[in-house]
Design goal:
The protein is an alpha/beta fold and about 375 residues long. It has a single domain, classed as pyruvate-formate lyase- activating enzyme (Alpha-Beta Horseshoe), CATH 3.80.30. It contains 14 helices and 18 strands. The protein has helices at about 15-25, 40-45, 50-55, 100-105, 115-130, 150, 155-160, 200-205, 210-225, 240-255, 275-285, 305-325, 335-345, 355-365, and strands spanning about 5-10, 30-35, 55-60, 70, 85, 90, 95, 110, 135, 165-175, 190-195, 205, 230-235, 260-270, 270, 295, 300-305, 330. The structure holds iron/sulfur cluster. Iron/sulfur cluster binds near residues 98 and 143. Iron/sulfur cluster binds next to strand 7.
């Protein structure tokens, strides 16, 4: 259950059955119907810690914009070509490094009620596709599974994708909210993915998330129900001895799941836009992650010095390849030098990063690629 202070309902959706069932789950939480979100934003912005408050205010509303969007990526770095299914915003967990803290102004738990439109849009884009395949996911503006008990959206998405031949869904989470998903018919078209980190980073920087062991056990359970898996080491946070700790995490990972069932593993070292620094300083006073040697990159985000990034990636890649020689390891927003120095090739030599990931989905999830006019 979400820990909520208040539920705001936009007038446009106030009569929807889903709104009633969500509000019924929280009989002790005050509900206010509004026709303009300004008063709600004011409530959040005038609180002592607007970001914490935003994690406890639920706004049930209609998504007025696009449900399916291209991942914004970041200029000058290699992007994976993923598409976002926009089911809602923000998160009940509280990671110091979370970009969403400075992405939304102000941030609020926004749950989109017009799910019918989402599925109509999904049907249109999957039906109109004439070439290749699609990789879509919900874990960009929120954690994929925090909404599950409330809306069942992932269950509906899993059912939808189970009938798709040219599209695959990735659900990305730091929760273990898999109970309602595991028995569903998925036809291997949904990849369940966990963000992983070292126990030290989980304990110090990822408030209200689940432990590493819990995430890996959940992944193993999903594998036993036939789901393909993926993992994301993002952000990799540098500290003395971190390489050894990340190697241990990789060992634990492959003690729990089979390398043959892992579609991809992504890695990205800690990076942040300058405005996130103040947020971390104010909200996570014990955190030291922003005080390393971090320099602005080509997209103005601060990153570790490139030789250090390469050194850390190399250690992790070596360990992953030892345990899972065939798994596809990719970087979230790195440049060609990093790819070449750590993996000995650049994605363009293999058709580009989107193509490399598509091919993994083809071989592990049984997706087929559409030829022109097929
Ligand atoms: S789990 Fe993900 S979305 Fe939620 S606070 Fe942490 S980084 Fe942000």
């Amino acid at each position: 259950m979400m820990q909520l202070l208040k539920i705001f309902v936009h007038q446009d959706v106030s009569q929807e059955a889903l709104v009633r069932s969500i509000c019924d789950r929280y009989p002790h939480v005050p509900v206010e119907t509004i026709d303009d979100p300004k008063s709600m934003y004011q409530t959040i912005l005038t609180s002592a810690d607007p970001i914490s408050t935003g994690k406890q205010i639920l706004f049930l509303t209609r998504n007025q914009g696009a449900f399916i969007r291209k991942c914004p990526g970041t200029r000058s770095y290699i992007c994976c070509g993923y598409q976002i299914i926009h089911i809602g915003t923000f998160c009940t967990m509280d990671c110091s490094y979370c970009i969403l803290q400075s992405y939304f102004h102000p941030p609020v738990l926004q749950c989109f009620i017009n799910i019918d439109t989402l599925f109509a849009d999904l049907k249109t884009i999957t039906h109109n596709r004439t070439r290749g395949m699609q990789r879509l996911g919900t874990g960009e503006f929120t954690d994929s599974l925090i909404w599950e008990a409330m809306t069942g959206i992932s269950q509906q998405l899993i059912s939808f994708f189970s009938t798709q031949d040219h599209a695959v869904l990735e659900l990305k989470t730091k929760t273990t909210a898999i109970e309602k998903l595991i028995a569903l018919r998925h036809n291997r078209k949904t990849i369940l993915a966990w963000s992983l980190n070292t126990p030290r980073i989980i304990q110090t920087e990822e408030r209200r998330t689940t432990s590493l062991n819990a995430r890996l056990k959940a992944a193993a359970t999903c594998e036993s129900y036939g789901f393909p898996l993926a993992f994301h080491f993002d952000p990799i946070v540098y500290y003395d001895g971190c390489e050894q700790d990340y190697e241990t995490v990789i060992d634990h990972l492959f003690d729990h799941v089979s390398p043959d069932n892992v579609v991809w593993i992504s890695m990205g070292t800690f990076r942040f836009m300058p405005e996130l620094k103040t947020v971390i300083q104010e909200r996570f006073k014990q955190s030291t992650i922003i005080y390393g040697e971090l320099f602005p990159g080509m997209d103005d985000k601060f990153r570790y010095f490139k030789p250090l990034r390469i050194q850390v990636y190399q250690r992790l890649i070596d360990r992953i390849k030892k345990r899972a020689p065939d798994v596809c390891v990719y970087y979230c927003m790195e440049d060609e030098t990093v790819w070449y120095k750590t993996q000995g090739f650049v994605p363009d030599e293999r058709g580009g990063l989107p193509h490399m990931l598509d091919m993994r989905a083809v071989s592990i999830c049984g997706i087929t690629q559409l030829e022109n006019g097929q």
